[in-house]
Write a structure and sequence with these properties.
The chain is an alpha/beta fold. The protein contains 12 helices and 12 strands. Helix content is 31%, strand content 15%. The longest helix has 18 residues. It is elongated. The chain starts with a strand and ends in a 20-residue tail after the last helix.
């Protein structure tokens, strides 16, 4: 998969996406600053969410449209009112994409309705994202497919059966330029619900890039995902966790995001390859392994014993695997304390 000029593969550093979501706080100035900060901390892409309240839900105040979950960040809020406040104004998009271009950071979005797909296409976005709660919106996905751009699809709140259906649907459409993101659709998500090992299973079952859309606090889940082959990491990004944004509480501030970028890169670098060869640095330090040394002065023809030989660091003497075979043999010459034992001494 390739998004703009960035190849996404296990052979490259993980592709890191900074999700603005509702952290714009209805401020164009703040939104543009988020873009600049995302670039500074090393994000490869900035992502928006494209919708308005009318495309998301109904303007209805009955019980079905009220969030009743007491654990939810948005408890007792009406869906329409929530989406109306959280939506990023379409009138800002021209300046947002221009700012991203000036900063040299990839910018794309998650459309939540078909009209948004066309609107985003007018900016020639390099990719589209499908949110977890929209991955069963087949008409929306069909619309996105027609744009012939890469698609990243989150799998939160999606069963194994539904994932299989979605994969087969895309393949039947002869569309292969997509990636799946393991995701836990809770806000914030518990670290123990991440089930990072699922990434490995997804990679075995589906021949596409697999990544992580992460809503847990911190960087632990993201870093762990790299060891299971994740090539994309998406995290919500904000300027300040106390800035009043709807998603601030489960978003990362600039310092955290910089750490995310650095440590996921380090995790990727640490994967290396299957190798039993010593690196150049390791070869230099091999001297600190143990070997057999003379622990007391030994006279010619004197027998080697556990009292006059010792297995110690460094490694200039015989390998310890010979220790038992050496005991009881005689020395060919006088040996001083601290001499590395060699075969010629036997």
């Amino acid at each position: 998969m390739k998004i703009f000029d960035r190849e996404i593969t296990i052979r490259k550093q993980p592709f890191i996406i900074a999700e603005i979501s509702a952290n714009h706080n209805n401020s164009m100035t703040r939104t543009l600053k988020i873009i600049r900060e995302a670039k500074k901390v090393g994000a490869h892409a900035i992502k928006l969410q494209s919708y308005n309240a009318d495309s998301m839900t109904l303007n209805c105040d009955n019980k079905f449209f009220l969030i009743k979950d007491k654990k939810s960040l948005w408890y007792k809020k009406n869906l329409y009112d929530l989406y109306k406040k959280a939506a990023l104004p379409y009138s800002w998009y021209k300046e947002i994409f221009a700012e991203a271009k000036r900063c040299g950071i990839i910018c794309f979005s998650t459309p939540f309705d078909e009209n948004s797909v066309d609107y985003l296409d007018s900016f020639d976005v390099p990719a589209y994202k499908i949110a977890s709660f929209e991955n069963n919106h087949i008409p929306l996905i069909e619309k996105v497919i027609k744009k012939k751009k890469p698609i990243i699809i989150s799998l939160g709140a999606t069963t194994e059966k539904e994932i299989k259906y979605l994969y087969n649907f895309l393949v039947k459409k002869k569309f292969y330029n997509f990636a799946f993101l393991q995701c836990t659709s809770s806000y914030p998500a518990k670290i123990e619900d991440s089930n990072i090992k699922t990434i490995l299973d997804l990679k075995k079952k589906y021949k596409v890039e697999i990544g992580l859309s992460d809503h847990t606090p911190g960087i632990g889940a993201a870093v762990a995902s790299i060891s299971y082959g994740a090539t994309i990491i998406e995290k919500h990004f904000t300027l300040d966790k106390k800035g009043g944004g709807f998603d601030d509480i489960f978003s990362m501030d600039p310092d955290e995001f910089r750490l995310l970028v650095n440590e996921t890169k380090n995790a990727w670098l640490s994967l290396g390859k299957i190798s039993y060869e010593l690196s150049k640095d390791e070869q230099r330090h091999k001297m600190f392994k143990r070997s057999i040394f003379v622990a007391k002065n030994i006279k010619k023809n004197e027998k080697f014993t556990k009292n006059n030989l010792k297995i110690v660091r460094p490694s200039f003497g015989l390998d310890p695997i010979y220790f038992k075979r050496v005991i009881g043999k005689k020395s060919k010459q006088n040996l001083k304390f601290g001499t590395p034992l060699e075969k010629k001494h036997l």
